[in-house]
Every structure is written in structure tokens, then in C-alpha cells.
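Sharing a chain and its predicted structure for anyone who wants a worked example. Both blocks are below, sequence first, C-alpha cells second.
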Amino acid sequence: MRTRHVLVTLFFTGLLSAVLTAQVTVRRGAVVYHGSASNTTAPATVVEKTVREATPEWQKMVDEDIDPDSARGKQLLVKMNQRIRQAIKSVAATESRDMVKSKEDQTDDQGRETGARNDTVVDKIKE
């Protein structure tokens, strides 16, 4: 019986430590493009502005002075966001990253290397 108690205690201690360490802290309402902040071992970040400005949809909105609140602006924003998420998902899979979030939304990386992936994502967007 004592062995079982020790095993159960070790199991829950390991589980608790995994839960406490397998995360990064982000702001409320954070933009997480891929994965989950509460269960990550290989997080990455992107600078939202840099990635957004690389999309043809954003460039069109700027060049043609399209209001983001107009019907056309909203259509372009939806396409832009889809393009960004697809590029991020592809880069995350290639680089074995289980979570990608906006750099501005991170409050604590809890000791994890959360390198920026801007250049890689921008290159993927421009393919």
C-alpha cells in the first residue's frame, strides 16, 4: 500500500511540475496564432506589425487608402489574417514550434527561449 501511495504522489508531483513549467505567460486577450500558451515547450514570437505589413492585403489597403472598417477593408483584413495564420502554421511545423504568439503579448517566457520568427514568416508570406 505504501508503494502505491509513493507512486501516486510521484505521479501527481510530476504532473504538477509539468503543468507549471509547460507554459508561458501572456496578457489577457493575447494574440496566439498557433498552439496554446498554457501547454508549450517550444514557443516562438512574431512582431505583428512587421508580419502584417508584409502582406499584399495590407499593402493594398495602404496604397489605395482603404478604410479597415469598410466592407472592402474587412474583406482584405480577413484574407490578410488567413494568410498570416497559414504562414505561421507552416513555419511552426517546419521549425517544431508548438506555439507562436505576438511578441507584444508576452509577459513572461518562464525561462523558455522564445525567438522571433519574423523573417521566416515574412519570407513565407511573400512566397
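Comments welcome. The domain at 2-126 is CATH 3.30.910 (Protein Binding, DinI Protein; Chain A).
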